[in-house]
Amino acid sequence: xxxxxxxxxxxxxxxxxxxxxxxxxxxxxxxxxxxxxxxxxxxxxxxxxxxxxxxxxxxxxxxxxxxxxxxxxxxxxxxxxxxxxxxxxxxxxxxxxxxxxxxxxxxxxxxxxxxxxxxxxxxxxxxxxxxxxxxxxxxxxxxxxxxxxxxxxxxx
DNA sequence: GCCAACGTTGGC
DNA sequence: GCCAACGTTGGC
Length: 156
Fold this sequence. Notes:
Shape: globular
Order of helices and strands: EHEHEEEHEH
Pfam families: EVE
Strand content: 25-35%
Low-confidence stretches: none
Oligomer: single chain
InterPro entries: 5hmC_binding, EVE_domain, PUA-like_sf, THYN1-like_EVE
Radius of gyration: 15 Å
CATH class: Alpha Beta
Helix content: 10-25%
CATH superfamily: ph1033 like domains
Organism: Spartinivicinus marinus
Keywords: Phosphoprotein
Protein name: EVE domain-containing protein
Number of helices: 4
Structural class: alpha+beta
Strand order of the largest sheet: 2-5-4-3-1-6
């Protein structure tokens, strides 16, 4: 059984369309700089897990589609690159502080499941995404929540 | 652009 | 270990 996740991305930076247009429709998920998110990604995210791709900080916030984990956590090289916005001087080759996984495009929803609709569904009240003040960029999704959200996808 | 909420840093 | 200051996230 796969685990289920939700990962946020700003579509102005990297959208689900960008993922679909990558070589092999696969890209590494760099730039995670939050320990809670890192720990989940590093310790609990496994090959074959499914991911809701969430568009944040944009006009239409919500879940835009599905991706899947195709490579488990390995060091995030952008932390070692002084020219990267994600550079972290405290991360080293021998002792990497930040990690990333590779994900592959699976499906784009014809219409996204909006944050507003997610918030309105009482069955999703425990999802960190809809909780007040939550800023987690990677979060687990329970199987029941996953199925509930899938049932909310317009036209699916 | 605003700002509430949160995470991190660093002095003590 | 406390906590004030600061930086970031992300919805609105």
